[in-house]
C-alpha cells in the first residue's frame, strides 16, 4: 500500500522565494609593518605550499592593499607528507576556492594567529518580494557566514535599521520561533516568513 504524507504549514501554502548570498573572502585587520598602521589585508585566495624533505607547510596568503606586503595564515605546519591525502594536497596546489573559503572563514584560526576577521562583503540575488503578500523566504549561502540576517534583509530591501526593527516588531518578518532575527547570523539555511509592503513604510 502506498502511503502519502502531506506537509502543511498553516492553512495555506506560502509562495517560496529563495535569495542567494554570494560573498568575497573576508579581509583581516592586522598591523602592517611597512605602512606603520593597521590595514585590512585582503585574502588572495591563494595558498603557498612548501615541501622540505618529507615535511609540508601550507599557508593562505593575504596582502596589504596599500603596500603589497604579504601575511601568511598558517594552515599546516611541519606535517608529514605521508599524512596528507594526495587529492587534498592537489586542491591546495590549485588554490581551490572552497578550501580557501573554509580557512578564510575559520574565525578561531584567524584570531589564534593575531588577525581580526572583517565582515565579508556580500551580494544578495533572487526575486524581489511581492508587495503585501506573505511569502516563505529562504536565505542560502555556500558556507556559514559571519553576516547577520538583518544585514541581508536591509541590503536587499533597502531598509534603515529603524524600518527593519519596525517590520520585526509588527510581525511582518518572522524567523523560526526560537530565533532572534536581529541577532541571527547566516549560520546555515535560514527560513523566514515575510509580509512586506513597501508602500506601508
Ligand atoms: Zn601595508
Automatic annotation (TrEMBL):
<dbReference type="InterPro" id="IPR009412">
    <property type="entry name" value="DUF1062"/>
</dbReference>
<protein>
    <submittedName>
        <fullName>DUF1062 domain-containing protein</fullName>
    </submittedName>
</protein>
<dbReference type="Pfam" id="PF06353">
    <property type="entry name" value="DUF1062"/>
</dbReference>
